[in-house]
Amino acid sequence: MSISDKNTVEKQYNTSNHLNTRISIHDKYSTNKQGFGNWITSHYDIREGMKVLELGCGTGSMWVGKGELVAKCSQLILSDFSAGMLEQTKSTLADLEGIEYQVIDIQNIPYADQTFDVVIANMMLYHVPDLERGLREVRRVLKEDGTFYCATYGENGIMEYIYGLFEKYDVKASPNHAFTMQNGADKLGNVFDEVKRFNYEDALEVTNFDDMADYVYSLAGMSGLENVSRETMLQVLNENAVDGVLRVPKDYGMFTAKSVKRNRPCCRS
Q: 235 near 169, Cβ under 8 Å?
């Protein structure tokens, strides 16, 4: 990640506005009513007394209503690279007790080796400048029988669909494929001993195209959208709808990773 890319990420996630826009459209129009967040947390094997660290916690929305899960943890640390985002997390989870909040960079996790039973990093690994260093830091702080959970998107989803709609308007796409459902297993396999993949079946069926326009304008991975008027965008979305419904493919899922043997160096680089 270049300095300019890093600055873009910091600007995008300094507050929760853009993220909330994207979360909202998934909440309103996803065909899988379980919800991606609930699906992710359903995979967590968090037992009584475990120590848990989440990296890149975002708004903390996936912990809403998960008081029983929080109560199982002897220590639960929610962290984010962005201090502004972390303040939103604190507000979102104000009713939950027993949570610690910290600003942490995954590339330099300030904890001793084998501290945590569970480490979580959802929808954020593709932003890490030195991904292998970050993954080795995760492995370092995981206990020998611990589990790393990391959700991400694929390369055949919303971004690619939107680019197809607006390519003729000189919109340029630069999707971040640093860690996807297609290449994530290989990247995790360079650091961890056991990796499993889980696919989430879902799509968007959007009926309010203003909502979809807000979503498109919130995306950071495309250039030229500022030259597409809202009127034009709404027209294009309407033209691609069927019976008033715009069906948008989604490509999401998650991995679990474990270190079952310690025969490779996992110290800080």
A: no
